[in-house]
Amino acid sequence: xxxxxxxxxxxxxxxxxxxxxxxxxxxxxxxxxxxxxxxxxxxxxxxxxxxxxxxxxxxxxxxxxxxxxxxxxxxxxxxxxxxxxxxxxxxxxxxxxxxxxxxxxxxxxxxxxxxxxxxxxxxxxxxxxxxxxxxxxxxxxxxxxxxxxxxxxxxxxxxxxxxxxxxxxxxxxxxxxxxxxxxxxxxxxxxxxxxxxxxxxxxxxxxxxxxxxxxxxxxxxxxxxxxxxxxxxxxxxxxxxxxxxxxxxxxxxxxxxxxxxxxxxxxxxxxxxxxxxxxxxxxxxxxxxxxxxxxxxxxxxxxxxxxxxxxxxxxxxxxxxxxxxxxxxxxxxxxxxxxxxxxxxxxxxxxxxxxxxxxxxxxxxxxxxxxxxxxxxxxxxxxxxxxxxxxxxxxxxxxxxxxxxxxxxxxxxxxxxxxxxxxxxxxxxxxxxxxxxxxxxxxxxxxxxxxxxxxxxxxxxxxxxxxxxxxxxxxxxxxxxxxxxxxxxxxxxxxxxxxxxxxxxxxxxxxxxxxxxxxxxxxxxxxxxxxxxxxxxxxxxxxxxxxxxxxxxxxxxxx
Amino acid sequence: xxxxxxxxxxxxxxxxxxxxxxxxxxxxxxxxxxxxxxxxxxxxxxxxxxxxxxxxxxxxxxxxxxxxxxxxxxxxxxxxxxxxxxxxxxxxxxxxxxxxxxxxxxxxxxxxxxxxxxxxxxxxxxxxxxxxxxxxxxxxxxxxxxxxxxxxxxxxxxxxxxxxxxxxxxxxxxxxxxxxxxxxxxxxxxxxxxxxxxxxxxxxxxxxxxxxxxxxxxxxxxxxxxxxxxxxxxxxxxxxxxxxxxxxxxxxxxxxxxxxxxxxxxxxxxxxxxxxxxxxxxxxxxxxxxxxxxxxxxxxxxxxxxxxxxxxxxxxxxxxxxxxxxxxxxxxxxxxxxxxxxxxxxxxxxxxxxxxxxxxxxxx
Lengths: 559, 364
Known about the structure:
The structure holds two protein chains of two kinds. Chain A contains 22 helices and 20 strands. By secondary structure, chain A is α/β, with parallel strands linked by helices. Chain A folds into two domains: 145 residues, Rossmann fold (3-Layer(aba) Sandwich), CATH 3.40.50; 269 residues, P-loop containing nucleotide triphosphate hydrolases (Rossmann fold), CATH 3.40.50. The two termini of chain A are 27 Å apart. By secondary structure, chain B is α+β, with helices and mostly antiparallel strands. The interface between A and B is medium-sized, with 32 and 27 residues. Chain B: It is found in: Cell membrane. Chain B: Belongs to the binding-protein-dependent transport system permease family. Chain B: It is a multi-pass membrane protein.
């Protein structure tokens, strides 16, 4: 056992100032294995791995107790000079954001070569050959071209491959991958995961794979470690953790993600597991059919006809301006009370379409009929009235609220602008009413956005949106920035509100599982065009188009 | 539970309070502000513009003492109390520095003070000039704490009254620059496109003219005088404010809460004033503090060149101008004292600007 052990944590605690963020954790990493660390934001999963490389911010953080043993040396006591010979050579790391972890002013090949020159005695010529070999290894198409390319000239997935090539350049013993695929599309994520697996099998190095995505970890890891608020709540073989989770938190985490097979009426949250009040009611296919029959008998609320949005970019004085169609000939109908899911990879035009419906960006051609009236041709004064009816819930709960306005006032402001209700007193009562509806209380009225957590802020954003009593709400990646357990709460809230107020949603997301759970109809978009449009369950079961199949196939399946 | 919440503003204020130099500068500026408003209350010489000259005791050292005979003024003035309080006495009694004196039967005879060991003239004055009380009440020893300038005026009083111009030019210039700069910057940044191009063109043209030259041009157009200087300095300073505001707005308008405000149907004016401007005030406040300091410097520069406040009005820059050639004549204090005043006030504004920048930086 101890022979097999390459890295071990012993009773490690880390503090930021007075605040202890890692409480006395112990675990080990075996040779030739992939260890998955899973947890939500703030669970300390990244902090503990940064500690391995001595990359914690020196001024504010401190390792209070414990040790990290690597090859019989305690990494917590190492000087920064001796760390340099370990970093990159013995232990290397891949970061989340491939866009910002490569130096934009250096050619990709040079950046990899630099590491080789730093840590080995290879000549420049040899280092270049070695780099191209590495690029072949990480399956970069046309390695010679990538060698001479600047980071902005290659795609996100290719950048992440370059990062992996950098990380494995010196044949490290340990590779730490910190959320390496979170910023990537599902199909690209799938490829990167496969690549990491094959590389690991070839080189027999140990990998620590950190992520918040449970199903992803079930695909890659041999052993899993679940972290929650700075503690390790559970660890063990991947299969046993997923089949038979012991800790309540792990159970909640596994179940709060919408399943692709069945459709639960209410998603279970951590709170439910703690109180033991999980609701396993399933919406059956018959229920769904019944509901759809009623839905589709009415005239459509919104009808989008041949909408197009063209962007023209001027690349220089002498070049002809090039045009790019972000949305290309899209038409669909939306019925009152329905949820239309809009799914696609980044850059497929789904947000642009949402903005065109909201009239935030004018469409280039085509028409959008809302209750029979073409809203693309309305004068500005009419659009203001329309704003009351069509609303949006944003992706980022941190930047969608004005940091200098207390939340109560932020919710009250749209009411004032649209002259809803007679007096401020009445409006305030309404706001408190809405705050209660979204699961917050009156006490929060005078607080500022920075005093809330991400999930709470998203609730405030929703409260502000529904304050106007709109009919149609566009949810633009509204839950993508949230942790899984919070995501379940917000999804439940959205469904609840839909039943109470009869909203119609356009639910935009890149996460097929979430979209499928929420939607009646599903619209798959690719490169500005509609790939497929049908009932969500039908599409999932029998995808007709190649692209849809690829998309469904790429979703990590749980065990 | 009524929860008193901490807004970002309050957090910044708490942080500012912890910065010693910031708070110190703040109190110093408040002090100078009070002094400049109530200058005539504090000044030993409270005649208008502290303009009581005694040519025989010109350019004396700080702490100079002399016996002073006050000859009361014959004619009555009808100046209101507040006018006197804020603008000084229009007509005052004549003051004569004397070496010695003797009281005769119905005349007072005194010898005028002269420096450099010369004999002063012997003069007599009928005692009837001094109404009611005895003559001794009109003869007192007077101390000039900062010495006297080249016209024998009390330098301390001149410095106190001069603070007024330096201080108010800062206020007026910053006010005008904010008014124009924030408006132009917001319009350019928010609407972009052709409006932006036009405003940027105006900004670049204004910027290409040297400040001093522009101020001279404006003073020539509007006439000499200190109000013209106020306006001229303000008109040159809006450029920087506008550029900062424009840049900030361009990045702030990409924030989701601005898009949210647009989606909620708020009009442009409301979005700019309520949702964008409060969030970009930090750099504007910092640049205003720097502008305040720059305005003071420009004014003293202009006064030094003789196109600022006109004599007999007291201004620190003009005081340096009057006395800079005394520096090599062994009486540097005449120019150094107002110089130090300018320096300390400008530094206070710079320090407060730095402290504000640190306090308003919410990220760290």
